Amino acid sequence: MRVILGIQVGDREHEAVKVQELLTKHGCIIKTRLGLHEASTVACSSKGLILLEFLPDSEAEIDSIETELSSLESVVVRKMVF
What we know:
Elements: E1 3-9, H1 12-25, E2 30-36, E3 48-54, H2 59-70, E4 75-81
Antiparallel strand pairs: 1-3, 1-4, 2-3
């Protein structure tokens, strides 16, 4: 089974450090990490999008990181399972 989490960070200024700490805490099960944000010549967007692909057979820890990320105020998490 392949699990991918989409993480939208609504307030990067205030939540980025917390999100990074959680990603580091669970870093051993993250196979692929892709960060996307809108940028312009004026300023970076306050929102960000992170896509995570996980190693197989990590469902319990994936559930844990999903719960922890979802508890952050401006973070929205969506899971895709293939």
